[in-house]
What we know:
The chain is an alpha/beta fold and 241 residues long. It is built from nine helices and seven strands, in the order H-H-E-H-E-H-E-H-E-H-E-H-H-H-E-E.
Amino acid sequence: MSVTSRYREAWEGFWREAPGGPGEVLWDADPALTAELHLPLLTPHLLDAGLPLVDLGCGNGTQTRFLAGRFPHVVGADLAAAALDHARRADPAGRAAYRQLNAADKGETQALHAELGDANVYLRGVLHQCDPDDRQPLADGIATLVGRRGRALLVELSEAARPVLGSLAQGPSGPPPKLATVFRHGIAPGEVADDAVPRYLRSAGLSVLASGRAPLTTTESGPDGTTVRLPSLWLVAGRED
């Protein structure tokens, strides 16, 4: 079984069992706390806001539907067919399109680029969830999708998130329910060094145009009842003219 096959099966199992309501999974935070805050980081660097936008790793489509109200053509893409089932059910009006995609597969990203042309890309918390062998191929897939004129915004857990997650997982009562569900399906977040993220992008032929730090909001609460916000870094990448 390949690394990608194991990874796909883990995500299919997770999404088949996931509840359908908003905020029921760890990262399904309200767009007002996620995509709406991230868009101003991307917008100044867009060469063409009219390009299609791919929400890569869209899951149940919460952010995709928000983005569909702000870009003319939005495609929610995910590895797991079960995730896309959730996304389509939550979008009966068809505000966005949805596509099963292994973004670490060169042929699949090339096929989507051939269909869409250059695209802007949004992904939140995807790279650190990949198995290590898939991280550079994922960055290569992002580069394929953006082409010459697209831009990509990545929001990824930073190294500083590890002790926060460790503290949650090792609490007296064990990990809180939503985090425990992620672990149970073998999707424990992997540590990615902060300086590795731009290296993956540069190796894929992209330039890092801007970067910074901002918390990644979850739907989980800590022992004190406050929302867990994980330290993260963000990067805007694309090809420079």
